[in-house]
Amino acid sequence: MSAALFRGTGMRERVARLALLLALIFAAASAAFAFNPDEVLKDPVLEQRARNLTSQLRCMVCQNQSIDDSNAELARDLRVLVRERLVEGDSDKAVIDYVVSRYGEFVLLKPRLSLRTVLLWGAPIGLTLAGIFAVFIFSRRRASQEQPQKLSADEEERIRNLIEK
Amino acid sequence: MINEIGHYVLVLALGVGLIVSTLPVIGARRNDRALMDVASLGSVLMFLLVAFSFAALTRAYAVSDFSVRNVWENSHSLMPMIYKLTGVWGNHEGSMLLWLLILVFFSALVAAFGRNLPETLKANVLAVQAWISVAFLLFILLTSNPFLRLEPVPAEGQDLNPILQDFGLAIHPPLLYLGYVGFSVCFSFAVAALLEGRIDAAWARWVRPWTLAAWTFLTAGISMGSYWAYYELGWGGWWFWDPVENASFMPWLAGTALLHSALVMEKREALKIWTVLLAIMTFSLSLLGTFLVRSGVLTSVHAFATDPSRGIFILGILTVFIGGAFALFAWRAPSLKAGGLFAPISREGSLVLNNLILTVSTATVLIGTLYPLILETLTGEKISVGAPFFNLTFGLLMIPILLVTPFGPMLAWKRGDLLGAFQRLYVAAALAALAGLTLWYIENGGPVLAALGIAAGFWLIFGAFADLWYRANFGKLAFGIAFRRLKGLPRSAFGTALAHMGLGITVLGIVIVTTFETETVLEMKEGMAAEAGGYSLTFDGVRHAVGPNFTEDRGHFTVRKAGVEVADVWSSKRLYTARRMPTTEAGILTFGLSQLYVSLGDPMADGGMVVRIWWKPFILCIWGGTLFMMAGGFISLSDRRLRVGAPNRKAKPVRAAMPEAAE
C-alpha cells in the first residue's frame, strides 16, 4: 500500500521524496488500499458515474494520484462525499462544481478551460496549425529558390557536343 | 581507502575532461592532429577513471561498508546480494554516477569506433561530450558526492526503499540511462556539425545508428519501467502520466521523430536543419528530465525553493547546454545548405507529417508537465494536469499517426503514388475493418471507440505485413523467388516492419485492456470464491511468513475454470522491518496474453480480508509490442549500411560525390 504513494517508473529513488513518502505512509497507515468494498454504491449506474468522477479528482495529499487510486484518508472522505452527492441526485457537473468550491481548481486532474489554462488547452491545436503553416512556408520558399535555371550558352554547347558524339 | 581513491579518480576525470573539452577544439580549428588526437585518448581515459570510481562505490555496497554515508542510507547487511549491488543506483548520488558512467562510456565508444569519422568532426564531437561530462562531474563532486564518510561508523544500514528491492531496479535505470544519455551523442554530433558549419549525408549516416541504439534502449527502459510499476505497485495500472514518466517519455517521442528525420537526411539529404534541431531538442529533453527528477521541483515548488542547491546546479547545466546549443543553432544553421526537394506526397512528405505530429505530441506532454509548475511560480495558483488531460490530448494526436503510418513505407522517395499505396493497402484495411467489426458484433454493438481502436491496431500490423509482401513482390513472382527476395531485403526493411507491427500490438493491448478489464473489490473469508474473466478464485486463507529482511502475510488462492483447478497464486502484504514500510506484492497469473491480478487489502474486523481482483485481457500485448519495437531497432542496427564503425570503405568516393548528385 505504501507502493500506492510511490508512483512513476523513472528514477524514483530520491531521498527527499522518500521522507515525504514515509510521512504520507504513516498518515495513511490506517486506511486500506484505494477504495474499499463498503464504499460501493448499490446502483451500478450510479457507481459507474462515481468511478468516472473519482478518477478525475486529485488526491490532495498524494503525488499525482486520483482519489480513485489513493489510499489516503482524505481521498476516502472525498470518494464518500462524491457518492453522497450522487445519491442525493446531483448531476456530474454539480458534483464537480461542489468539490471544486470546497477544494479549489487544484483538485481537478483535467483542468477546466479558463483564461489561465487557455495556453495549456490551446497548445496541441495551436502547435499543429503552426507546424502545418511552417511546413507550408518552408516548402514554398524552397520550391521558389530552386526554380530550374536556364542553361548557359556554354552548357548548351557542351550538351550538344555530348549528344552529337 | 578505496573509497577515497574512488572519490579522487573522479577529480582526475574532471581534470582530463577539462583537457578534452578544450584542446581538440583548438586542434580542429588549426588542423593540428596532435591536439585532435588528445580527444580519443582522453575520452577512453575518462571512461576508465569513472568506471574505477563506480567499481569502488559498488565494492562499498557489496561489503556493506556503512562508513560511507551513501551506503548507510540505502543498504542493509541482510539484503540479498543482488539488491546490494543494484542499490548502488537506487539513490540520488549513485544514479548520477551511473548517468556519468554511461555518458563517458558512449564517448569512449565514439573514440573507439569512430576511426572512419572525419578527424575534425570526431575531435569536436568528443569535446562536446567532454563538456557535458565536466558539467556532470562538477555536479557530482560539488553537490552529490557518493563517497562521503560517516564517523562513528554505524553498525547497520537504513535499508533500501523496499519498492526498489526488486529485479526491476537491476535493469530499469541502466536501460533508461543508456537511452537518455545515448542521445547525448546525437547532441554532440549536432553541435559539432554546427561548429564546423558543415553537414552532409555522411553525418546522418553516423548519427542514425546512435539514435537507433539510444531509442531502442529507451524503449526497453520505459517499457520495463511500466511493467515494473504494474506488478510492483499493486493496483494494476501500467501508465500514469506521472511527471517522472513524462520525463522519460518526452525524449522517447522526440527520439522517434529524430529517427525518422535522420532517415530522410541520410537517404535524400533533405531536412538537414530540422534534423540538427531535433537532435539538440531530444537531448535537451533528456537533460530536462534529469532536472525534473533530480531537483525535487516535482514534489513541490516549495521543496525546490528550500533546498535548491542541486536543482539550481542542474538548472544551470540545463540553461548552458540547451541555451548554448540553440544560440549556436540560430547563429550557424542558416549557413547549412538545404538539401533535396520532394513532393508533398512522397516518403519524405509522410516522414514530415510523422515529425510534425510527434513534435506536437512531445510539446503537449512537455507543456502539460510544466504548466502547473510555471503557473504556480508566476501566479501562485495551483492547478493539476493529470492522466485525464493527457489521455484526451495525446490520444487525439495519436489518431492521425496511427492512420498514416502504413502509408509511409509504401510511398516512393521524392514523388509517391498515393493511389498505388492505397491499392497495396486495401487488403490490410479490409482485414483491419473486419477485425473491428467482429469485435463490435461480438460485443453486441459495444463500444464504438474500442472497435475503432482495434481496427487501428490491426491496420498497423497488416500494413507492416503488406509492406514486406510487396517489397518481396509476393503475388507477382513465383513463391520461391519472392521468398528469396524477402530474405534478401535489407535488414532495415524488417526493422521498420517489426517496429510498426509492434506499435500496432501495443495499441491493441492498450485498447483491449482499457475497454474490457474487469475489477472486483470484495471482502473475502476463507473458502469464499469470486469470479473474474471466466475464472473462479477461491480464497484459502492467509499465512504468516518471514523473509530475509521482511515479514509478510501471504494469501493463497486456488483458481478454477469450469470447476477444474487450473492454477494457484499467492498474493502478499509485506512489512520491511528496517524501514517499517509496508508493500503489497500482487499475485499475477498469466493465461496466454491475459492476466489475473490479485491484490490483498486490510483484514476486516469480522475475520474477512479485502481482496481486489482484476482480469486484464491481452495486457501482455502492451509490453509485447515494445519487444517488437526493440527487435526492430536491433535488426535495423545490424543492417550492414548502419553497422557502427564499419561503414563501407568502397562507398566513400560515391558518398563524396553524392551531395552534388542530390542537389
SS content category of chain B? alpha+beta
Bin the helical content of chain B.
55-70%
Mean pLDDT of chain B: 88
Average of the residue pLDDT scores of chain A: 76
Give the proportion of residues in helices of chain A: 55-70%
Element order, helices and strands of chain A? HHHHHH
Structural commentary:
The complex is a heterodimer of chains A (about 160) and B (about 675). Chain A is about 55% helix and about 0% strand. Chain A is built from six helices and no strands. Chain A has helices at about 15-30, 45-55, 75-85, 90-105, 120-145, 155-165. The relative contact order of chain A is 0.09. Chain B is α+β, with helices and mostly antiparallel strands. Chain B has 20 helices and nine strands. In chain B, helix 16 (about 450-470) runs antiparallel to helix 18 (about 490-515). Chain B is globular. Chain B starts with a helix and ends with a helix. In chain B, about 55% of the residues are buried.
Question: Can you summarize this structure?
Answer:
The complex is a heterodimer of chains A (165) and B (663). Chain A contains six helices and no strands.
Quickly list its features.
heterodimer, A: 165 residues, mainly alpha, 0% strand, rod-shaped, disordered N terminus, B: 663 residues, alpha+beta, 5-stranded antiparallel beta sheet, 4-stranded antiparallel beta sheet, 20 helices, disordered C terminus
Helix and strand topology:
The complex is a heterodimer of chains A (165) and B (663).
Chain A lengths: L14 H14 L15 H11 L18 H15 L4 H12 L14 H28 L7 H12 L1
Helix pairs in contact in A: 2-3, 3-4
Chain B lengths: L1 H29 L2 H30 L6 H6 L6 H6 L5 H22 L5 H25 L23 H30 L4 H33 L9 H26 L3 H24 L5 H6 L2 H24 L14 H33 L7 H18 L13 H25 L5 H25 L6 H10 L2 H26 L1 E7 L4 E4 L2 E12 L3 E12 L2 E13 L4 E5 L1 E5 L2 E10 L5 E8 L3 H18 L14 H11 L1
Antiparallel strand pairs in B: 1-9, 2-3, 3-4, 4-5, 5-6, 7-8, 8-9
